[in-house]
UniProtKB/TrEMBL annotation:
The chain holds residues 513 to 792 of 793 of the full protein. It comes from Paenibacillus sedimenti. It is found in: Cell membrane. It comes from the Bacteria. This is EAL domain-containing protein. Residues 23-278 form the EAL domain.
Length: 280
């Protein structure tokens, strides 16, 4: 073992320990966060390019802990999944989004707004997921037809048949189903062919390259055409630049989401955004 090797080892082991400690802290604090005031939902609009209005909003979880500060969902969602916390957390998310939807309807009667929530694969595959989600929507007196469930394809690999069955049941309850992050990582045409989905969300990584990579222009325009022939609504996510918007318009993309339109905002700002017609 070289001297530098030894140093590397020490540095490496400290880092692993730091990571472990942080994971443990996150897991421990997250358990209490669900019943406290630390979690909130922010909402990011989906802009309809045909109707020129906000078609819906996606609920995105935010967590600020007194000790840890703001923690990104990219960091804590995987920990919530591996520890099983995601199941109770997911129920909190559904319930909170339902109550918020009811509040918006009171504030702005007659509005048409689809609320999307992210459903983790672990959450979807818990034994009583259907009973749980049905329970929440019954309790809160919300018709599932106002809600969309965004699911990622990564989980479907091992439990494909089971996932199809669950999604069919959710569909029968009235939920819309979107395949999230399409074009990233695990994308398979099998999912598009066999999952009972109504909407495809094209991943930000494909949109990022759109303005300066001719190949990604071919890929994205072809994906949109394919989705349309499958009667799917297409949402492009992570749109930040006017050039990207311009190209997506020429490809007849249905909806866009991204900082160009709006960042995710607290619930009380959503009604204000709904009445702004110059977001684009
Ligand atoms: P996602 O579902 O793909 O959500 C989109 C992420 O991209 C969000 O990050 C959003 O804030 C961000 N984003 C949107 N537009 C832009 C843009 O134009 N530029 C850039 N740079 N970013 C943009 P966020 O809120 O940090 O969430 C990260 C991921 O964590 C989400 O990715 C989702 O997989 C997961 N997540 C967030 N909230 C929930 C939740 O309530 N439940 C579950 N299961 N997962 C969640
Ligand atoms: Ca999503
Ligand atoms: Ca996404
Ligand atoms: Ca994503």
């Amino acid at each position: 073992v070289k001297e530098t090797g030894k140093n590397n080892y020490r540095w490496f082991s400290d880092t692993i320990e730091d990571i472990r400690t942080r994971r443990m802290l996150i897991e421990q604090f997250l358990k209490d966060a669900i019943n406290g005031e630390e979690l909130t939902l922010h909402y990011q609009p989906k802009w309809d390019l045909v109707q020129n209005k906000i078609a819906g909003v996606e609920a995105l979880l935010r967590w600020t802990n007194p000790q840890l500060g703001h923690v990104s969902p990219y960091e804590f969602i995987p920990i919530a999944e591996s520890s099983g916390i995601i199941n109770d957390m997911g129920e909190w998310i559904m319930r909170t989004a339902c109550r918020q939807f009811v509040a918006w309807q009171k504030q702005s009667p007659g509005m048409s707004l689809i609320v999307a929530i992210n459903i983790s694969g672990v959450q979807l595959l818990q034994p009583n997921f259907i009973e749980r989600i049905q329970g929440v929507f019954t309790d809160e007196n919300v018709d599932p037809c106002h809600f969309e469930l965004e699911v990622t394809e990564s989980f479907a690999i091992e439990n494909f048949e089971e996932v199809i069955n669950i999604l069919v049941e959710l569909r029968n309850l009235g939920f819309m189903i979107s395949i999230d992050d399409f074009g990233a990582g695990y994308s398979s045409m099998k999912y598009v062919c066999q999952l009972p989905i109504q909407c495809m969300k094209i991943d930000k990584t494909l949109i990022d390259q759109l303005a300066d990579n001719v190949r990604s222009q071919v890929v994205v325009s072809t994906l949109i055409e394919m989705a349309h022939r499958l009667k799917l609504t297409v949402v492009a996510e992570g749109v930040e630049l006017p050039e990207q918007l311009h190209l997506l318009r020429t490809y007849r993309c249905d909806q866009i989401q991204g900082f160009l339109i709006s960042k995710p905002v607290p619930a009380d700002r959503v009604i204000e955004l709904l009445h702004t017609n110059d977001l684009v």
